[in-house]
Amino acid sequence: MSRTIRSTLAVVALLPGLLAATQLPGPATARSTATAVPAPVGPLALWAPDEVVAGSHRGRAYTDFGLRLVAGDQPVSVWAHRPAWDQEISVELRVGDEVTPLPAGTVTSFRGLEDFLTVSLTTLRGEPVRTLVRDVCLNNGGERVHPDAPARSPYPWGCPWNPFTVGSVQGVQAGWAVSPMGWEGRPPRLEPGRYRATTTIAPAWVDALGLDPAESTVTSTLRVTDDEPWYRRAARRAPQAAAQPAAAQPAASEPATASAGAPAGPLPDLRSLPAFGMRISRGGDHLQFAATVWNAGDSPLVVDGFRGADEDAMDGYQYFFDAEGNQTGYERVGSFHWHAAPTHDHWHFVDFARYRLLAADRSEAVRSKKESFCLANTDAVDYTVPGADWQPEGTDLHSACGSRGALSLRQVLSSGSGDTYAQFRAGQSFSLKGLPNGLYWISVEGNPDGVLKEHDTTNNAELRPVRIGGEPGARTVRWKQVGLVDEESSGFFAGRR
């Protein structure tokens, strides 16, 4: 959910239930004399109420300006894909069944539509106050605005944040509306008072999306009060995370046989992204990094665990499904164990991935002690692959990894999604003690022992060169940019997994 991660998202992190897929984020209290949202002439129309009331905190007004992007009688989506790290992102506009390629360079990241909106704020007498330019993720919440619209939206929750995202899909369901402002950028500095807000979609995006210019500009009144917004008050109370939809559960007991059926149909396809977010630990002798293994196959990777005689171990089984999602078989593939480290404290599947630091000649120099994992759909890596699940379950550790007392559990890596572990996880870093300075390779490899059934095991590993320097206790690490990928502006931060 876009991208990807900024200062105002600190509030959202405390209120995960606020941005549910069937709700619009509600930072603004809006009043309007309009009785209904008119049907657009073009694929999308910009709408705003006559007046919006916004609370403020420390001189900043917390509001989405009541803005909505409304779709007509056809769904509107933007598909983006990077064929290779050194190639530009290709983009398609889809309106209903019509597919239109957009010019090269239309987008340079997967976090949304860049510089999509401009909000010009003036006094009621027309004196300029402030101008805001915002990127827009079309997956920012959503709600039906017409009674005959489809009952649900198929589009993802938010836009990808991983710097090595391969493909993304964002869209607005037919007859639905989304909040284009979302939580992009810091709230503007505005004193209490009344302002005129004129919002315009950038002409380049009006042309690219085939919008009606008359539906691409709206004006409303913004009234800023000195009342603290309700969601900031709620954040101070640190509420518990909202419950997620119940995920599919494993069987009540372990299968009587080690295998049944055959994995002859759809299968997962595990691939790795280049290591990223590299840094040297505070002690100066460990190389830390983030790593993502993702599923490019046409079936989810589903692994169930069943408690055995050892209270800290479960037997693991991989399950197979046909194109309609019906289970066709299973196979014993390994085990789970209870990982009690402070940054884990949940069930891990053994041998899902392997991290190694290789010498210049590709021989192993150091192996990470981390060799077990909780599978969770933390990242949208490529939602353009066939069979991608745009709304996966198990997107965080609380929903995917199981409690100590669990008798069984299910961990899933959905098609199109990846599982990212960041630098601070226990056992993940490489010890540099005794290693000479020079060129090394960080190897991230999925399914290293081939225990999981997948379409292709030749594409599981990804290498990234790094150069180690410095002195013992004060080592340094340098690396080169991978192709056109801009890691610095990706929004990644060390606090993620």
What is the gist of this entry?
This protein is mainly beta and 497 residues long.
Could you describe the 3D structure shown?
By secondary structure, the protein is mostly beta strands. Strands 17, 21, 22, 23, 24, 27 and 29 form a seven-stranded antiparallel β-sheet that branches. A six-stranded mixed β-sheet has the order 1-3-16-15-10-11. Strands 18, 19, 20, 28, 30 and 31 form a six-stranded antiparallel β-sheet that branches. It contains four helices and 34 strands. The chain is 5% helix and 38% strand. The protein has two domains: 9-236, no CATH class; 265-478, Sandwich (Immunoglobulin-like). The two termini are 15 Å apart.
Top keywords for this entry?
7-stranded antiparallel sheet, mainly beta, Immunoglobulin-like, about 500 residues, 6-stranded mixed sheet, about 40% strand
Biggest sheet overview = 7 strands, antiparallel
Number of helices: 4
Structural class: mainly beta
Spans of at least 5 consecutive residues with low confidence: 1-35, 238-245, 492-497
Cα radius of gyration in angstroms: 24 Å
Strand proportion, as a percent range, falls in 35-45%
Tally of domains: 2
Report the mean per-residue pLDDT as an integer. 84
* Head-to-tail CA distance between termini: 15 Å
| Percent helix range | under 10%
How many strands in all? 34
Q: Shape from CA axes?
A: globular
Topology:
Blueprint: H1 9-13, E1 29-31, E2 44-47, E3 51-54, E4 56-57, E5 60-61, E6 68-71, E7 76-81, E8 90-95, E9 98-102, E10 113-123, E11 128-136, E12 143-144, E13 167-172, E14 176-178, E15 193-201, H2 203-209, E16 217-224, H3 230-236, E17 259-260, E18 270-272, E19 276-280, E20 286-295, E21 301-307, E22 313-321, E23 327-339, E24 346-350, E25 353-359, E26 364-367, E27 372-373, E28 379-380, H4 397-400, E29 408-413, E30 417-421, E31 430-431, E32 438-446, E33 461-471, E34 474-478
Parallel strand pairs: 3-16
Antiparallel strand pairs: 1-3, 2-6, 4-5, 6-14, 7-8, 7-13, 8-9, 10-11, 10-15, 12-14, 15-16, 17-23, 18-20, 19-20, 20-30, 20-31, 21-22, 21-29, 22-23, 23-24, 24-27, 25-26, 25-32, 28-30, 32-33, 33-34
